[in-house]
Amino acid sequence: MVAREGSIAQASKQLPLGQPTIIGQIRALENAIGEKPLTRSGRSLVPDGGGAYGLRYANEIFAASDAGARAKKEFAGSIDAGGKATTASSIPKTGNTAITFST
User: Fold this and answer.
1) C-alpha span between 57 and 13 (Å, rounded)
2) CA nearest 69: which of 78, 56, 60, 80?
3) Residue 9's pLDDT is what?
4) Maximum CA pair distance of the chain?
5) SS3 34
6) Comparing 91 with 65, which gets the higher pLDDT?
């Protein structure tokens, strides 16, 4: 969302997250990939290097997630997974730090 909005403040207005949380997630991403995914360009933050590369794949993930959500609605709240009804609430949490993005 920061890459789309161009700033942490604007992303915070679009997400149910405060600016400190978003900054923490950006730092976690920096630590995970070993470089800064965003560069300041004037008053805006823009994807750079690994951030630009990752944003392309993130957009593909968002599109797949949207398609999955539409399919879930079509199948009355459940998805048939090998004969078992599986919902997001039945998938175990891994405890990993999540980077939150929104479309």
Assistant:
1) 24
2) 78
3) 93
4) 54
5) coil
6) 65
